[in-house]
User: Which sequence fits this backbone?
């Protein structure tokens, strides 16, 4: 169902896939041509602090980011407080719109933060 596009792969499964095949989420999302980074693991604790840091850097309130993602503030708050990991479509939207690395936001890498 994921391959046919009938269902969206959950971010945890996408992370597992990328770790098994040593590829980057940025590559899977077609955000760059580099198919892997160093072999760091994805770090959920780092990832949500990076989301909050990104949001503040872009001068986005939780409400504004929620509006961009067509969700509500409590969802963004839940991501930032590490209650749960960001949904795949929300991650993709943020990365595509702001040219920021998904692997960076998910705590796998520290650089590059922004993609060209």
Assistant:
């Amino acid at each position: 169902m994921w391959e046919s596009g009938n269902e969206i792969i959950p971010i945890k499964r996408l992370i597992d896939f990328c770790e098994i095949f040593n590829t980057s989420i940025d590559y899977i999302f077609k955000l760059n041509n580099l198919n892997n980074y160093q072999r760091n693991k994805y770090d959920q604790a780092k990832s949500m602090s990076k989301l909050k840091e990104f949001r503040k850097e872009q001068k986005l309130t939780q409400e504004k980011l929620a509006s961009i993602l067509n969700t509500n503030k409590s969802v963004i708050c839940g991501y930032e407080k590490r209650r749960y990991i960001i949904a795949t479509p929300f991650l993709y939207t943020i990365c595509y719109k702001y040219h920021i690395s998904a692997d960076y936001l998910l705590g796998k890498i520290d650089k590059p933060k922004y993609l060209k």
